[in-house]
Structure formats: C-alpha cells, structure tokens
Amino acid sequence: MNQRLELIALPNFPMVEPGDDLVAMTLESLAALEIELVDGDVLVAAQKIFSKAENRYAYLNEIEPSSEALKLAPQIEKDPRITQLILDESVEVVAQRPGAVIVEHRLGYVHANAGIDQSNITSDDKNPRVLLLPEDSDRSAAQYRDGIKTKTGASVCVIINDSAGRAWRNGTLGYTIGSAGFEPVMDMVGEKDLFDRVMEVTEVAVADELAAAASFLMGQASEGAPVVLVRGATLRYADVDSKKLIRQRSQDLFRD
Predict the structure, then answer these.
(1) What are residue 204's DSSP bridge partners?
(2) For the structural domain made of 57-131, what CATH number should be given?
(3) pLDDT tens across 177-207, in order?
(4) Which CATH number does 6-48+137-251 carry?
(5) Which of 6, 26, 37, 240 has the fewest C-beta atoms under 10 angstroms from its C-beta?
(6) Model-level pTM?
(7) pLDDT digits (tens, 9 = 90+) for 128-168
(8) Pairing of strands 6-9, 227-231
C-alpha cells in the first residue's frame, strides 16, 4: 500500500507548436529541477500538448456544416461549424440540452463536445481555429513512453489526461484518455477487507485517480503546467491501455 505520493508540476514548460518534440521538452523541464527519471515514475501530460504537437487544429472557415449539424446547432446553442466537428469526432449523440451536448467519441469515451476546445490556443479572428483531441491518445501515450525510454533508459508509466464533468456532480476533474505501461484499472476482486470479507466487485480506476490529482496541479486557465511527475504510485506493469477504463455499452445502466 502506498504511504506517500509525490507530485511535481514541471516548470517553464514552453508553448507547444505542431511538430514539437514533447519528449525533449519534458526532459529539459526535468533537468531544470535536477530530476532524473527512474523506473516506475509516472508522467501525466495534458491532452492539449499532444493535440498541438500533432497539429490537430481545425479551421472553422474550412468547415461546411451538414443538414444534421444545422439542425442540431440551435438546439445546443453552438456554432454550426463546431457542431459539425463534434459530429465528425463522434459516433453518437448521447444527450443534449441548450448549451451542452454529450457524445460518444469515436475512441469510446463519453463526454461533452467531443473534447473540442478553444481555450489556451492562439487563433486568427478572420479564420478561427479549435483544437481536437489526439487522433489516438493511447498511441500517443505509447510513443511518448517509448521516447522517454530511448532517451533516459527509464521505464515510466504515462497518462494523457483531459478534464470532464460528471453526472450528478458540479465541476470538472481530470480523467484519463490515453495511457501506456501500466494497468489502468486495479481489479481487487478476491482480496480481503479489514474485516476479512472477500471483495466481490471492487475495481479501482487508478489511472483516473492520478489524472485527477495531476490536473489539480496543472490548473485549467493560465497556469502553464501541462506535465506532472508522479512518484511513489507503485503501479502494476501491463501492456494495455486506457480502453480498459471504458465501460461496455451492455453494462451501462444510463444508456438504452
């Protein structure tokens, strides 16, 4: 059992542009703290820096809304061009109301607006742009992990986090949309509690717990701290990714 967990937001992380080397940027920020990575360290990185490095920008003047987008846009009070991007990035509209639309992203997670964002990016008023999620967040996490291993020799765990709201609760929190190098869900079925009872259904979303903790340091506005080092988590190695966090539709009580 972990008795101590250390989280360190990497300082002076530069603004990311398309084509930038996130591994090199991360190692430079670590060097500024005189920290060397070791096996078992966890790097939690904001989705936005991967999207920027992968040039996942979409320019609104280049978007032609479909009839479906034109019908949905006034219902959710959004620009029809952004509505079209939401539809393009999704496989299903799960719920909607004025000001909000919940969708199943093409990668499986259910959240608002397909993760499309306009905050903390530069944009031209004549041709505004928005930022989409990475093409494949798990692949991005694996490539980042491999790059760290190549440059340092350390076998680290990687989490790509984003922020999302929750049913029945106010406020957003960090959650995992990409991971590599560890078991993101800890199965505790069969283990015993303090009173020697065998647990029958308990699973712990350790990736999301760490994503949320790191998000608290990253902030949501002008903090400029998109990478957090987590030390002491003692995660279980596994060659799986964040898809294990997504509940199967057949087990989802809140969707028909």
Answers:
(1) 186
(2) 3.90.1660.10
(3) 999 999 999 865 556 566 667 555 567 889 9
(4) 3.30.1330.100
(5) 6
(6) 0.91
(7) 999 999 999 999 999 999 999 999 999 999 999 999 888 88
(8) antiparallel
